[in-house]
């Protein structure tokens, strides 16, 4: 897995989402766990290990902040210890350790951050934020863990607003659970 280059200051925003076969990314806690496997946990672990910053939208931040500070283990330690940037126009403060609000111009703040030295910026879940950053051309890699389930309804990552978004497949793997890991980079 490629990582941002600390020496040159080139950082990447790497987005990771759980997705159903029909493109739903909303509320994975309701359908994802039936397919959880060591292979999938390894992918998530690599994404966290390759980053030095966690980027979250408001809803995902609130969900994570309610759970992860009370968890233990390697993943919990990684998430709890790393800096967290929160994109929100409605929150006045953030309480989870090492968290900070990005401010009103998220695109400008992240464009500047990508120019600073560091490792990958891990964008987890956060559907609205992921869409916004894809449209702005700021997502450098898209990791999709596509689950073999059709949900029929729910928010999808790609909508009519997304428009045309050419992507290059840079990696694919099929897990024993039937989940397919797809890594794309914008063309």
Automatic annotation (TrEMBL):
Pfam families in UniProt: RibD_C
SUPFAM superfamilies on file: Dihydrofolate reductase-like (SSF53597)
GO molecular function: 5-amino-6-(5-phosphoribosylamino)uracil reductase activity
Span of domain Bacterial bifunctional deaminase-reductase C-terminal: 13-180
Protein's GO biological process: riboflavin biosynthetic process
InterPro entries xrefs: DHFR-like_dom_sf, RibDG_C, Riboflavin_Biosynth_HTPR
Designated name of the protein: Pyrimidine reductase
Organism, scientific name: Actinorhabdospora filicis
């Amino acid at each position: 897995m490629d990582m941002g280059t600390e020496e040159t200051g080139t950082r990447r925003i790497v987005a990771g989402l759980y997705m159903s076969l029909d493109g739903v990314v909303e509320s994975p806690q309701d359908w994802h766990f039936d397919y959880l496997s060591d292979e999938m946990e390894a992918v998530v672990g690599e994404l966290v290990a390759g980053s030095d910053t966690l980027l979250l939208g408001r809803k995902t931040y609130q969900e994570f902040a309610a759970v992860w500070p009370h968890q233990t283990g390697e993943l919990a330690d990684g998430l709890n210890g790393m800096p967290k940037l929160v994109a929100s126009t409605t929150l006045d403060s953030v309480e989870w350790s090492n968290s900070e609000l990005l401010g009103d111009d998220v695109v400008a703040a992240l464009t500047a951050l990508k120019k600073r030295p560091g490792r990958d910026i891990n964008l987890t879940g956060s559907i609205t934020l992921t869409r916004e950053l894809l449209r702005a051309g700021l997502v450098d890699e898209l990791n999709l863990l596509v689950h073999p389930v059709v949900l029929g309804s729910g928010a999808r990552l790609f909508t009519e607003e997304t428009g045309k978004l050419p992507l290059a497949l840079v990696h694919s793997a099929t897990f024993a659970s039937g989940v397919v890991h797809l890594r794309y980079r914008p063309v």
